[in-house]
Amino acid sequence: MNFCSECGHPVTVKTPPGDHLPRFVCEHCDAIHYRNPRIITGTVPVAPDGRILLCRRNIEPRKNFWTLPAGFMENGETTVQGALRETDEESMVRGENPVLISVISLPAFDQVHMFYRVDMPDFNYGTTAESNAVDLYHLDDIPWPDIAFRTVERTLKHYLELQTQPFYVLNDHIDI
Amino acid sequence: MNFCSECGHPVTVKTPPGDHLPRFVCEHCDAIHYRNPRIITGTVPVAPDGRILLCRRNIEPRKNFWTLPAGFMENGETTVQGALRETDEESMVRGENPVLISVISLPAFDQVHMFYRVDMPDFNYGTTAESNAVDLYHLDDIPWPDIAFRTVERTLKHYLELQTQPFYVLNDHIDI
Ligand SMILES: [Zn+2]
Ligand SMILES: [Zn+2]
């Protein structure tokens, strides 16, 4: 950030009175420009036969690696609405009965990733602009070396654990 | 937002190619300025005798109403670190053993509130610049009419329910 988004004057970095961290502040209009982590929200779509849906990324980063449907939560929506929207956009699946199963912080990237288990109402799914392949995988057949992101890998492993353990939400972080 | 924070030129509102929502875009440097929901992270601190800690707000909004320690998650920290930091800042309590118990979206405010149950190691707590009173409450003695925010009320009620129900994370939203 170089300029105040309110008045257009150059910003400076300093700790406002009563605050404990340096911020981008505008000495012209007194605006304080906070920066906060962003939420990635997504799903683990489960087909009627128990297989789970994965998408092969059609865009960088990690193009052609497999991932769960997920993306940035937008203003004006809930975490669940965002997860279902991304699932539709990336796999043409309309997920049902969302249950939160993982919350993973990435402090080095200023992100928090949240995943919901959702039921697929049927076996319908399809490729999209964001996914050049979409397929269902048996739980013992997940292509681990080709999974795009560590938060997706951890969420999938947590989903596997939930098959034999009492329910809990994975709450974890990945440092670097 | 009126000006590009990168180059200082005026921004316009339009939907970038391949996107599905209007954004603030800069036609001078091609920057796209996304806006995303912010996370409020906090705790339900539980004393060794089972009483829970509440803080009386020393600042607007809802000054002098009772709340749980919570605040905006900062870049560079995890949801848990943010919750523990806010708990320390607002009540001088060092929470232990955090367990996520609620995730509540507020789409009208572009916020997501997350609360962790934490153990207090002892009965030490204190007022701070943000809390003009801090006190422990028996579960049947919570001052419901004086609770500051609906997400705090829902989280406290969920915590009460968890005394008699199998564990689950409240995942909810408040529309307006
Ligand atoms: Zn300014
Ligand atoms: Zn610009």
Structure description:
Two copies of one chain form a homodimer. With 176 residues, chain A is of the alpha+beta class. Chain A has two domains: 1-35, Ubiquitin Ligase Nedd4, Chain: W (Single Sheet), CATH 2.20.70; 38-173, Nucleoside Triphosphate Pyrophosphohydrolase (Alpha-Beta Complex). Chain A is built from two helices and eleven strands; from the N terminus they run βββββββαβββαβ. The first copy, chain A, has helices at 79-91, 150-161; strands at residues 12-14, 23-25, 32-33, 38-46, 52-57, 66-67, 70-72, 96-106, 111-119, 131-137, 170-173. In chain A, the strands form three sheets. In chain A, strands 7-4-9-8-11 form a five-stranded mixed beta sheet. A three-stranded antiparallel beta sheet of chain A has the order 1-2-3, with no helix packed on it. The first copy, chain A, has a three-stranded antiparallel beta sheet with strand order 6-5-10, with no helix packed on it. The longest helix of chain A is centred in the middle third of the chain and has 13 residues, at 79-91. Chain A is elongated and about 60 Å long. The two termini of chain A are 23 Å apart. Chains A and B meet through helix 1 and strand 8 of A and helix 1 and strand 8 of B. The structure holds zinc ion (2 copies). Chains A, B: This is NUDIX hydrolase. Chains A, B: One of its GO terms (molecular function) is hydrolase activity. Chains A, B: Residues 36-160 form the Nudix hydrolase domain. Chains A, B: InterPro entries: NUDIX_hydrolase-like_dom_sf (IPR015797), NUDIX_hydrolase_dom (IPR000086), Nudix_N (IPR029401). Chains A, B: Keywords: Hydrolase.
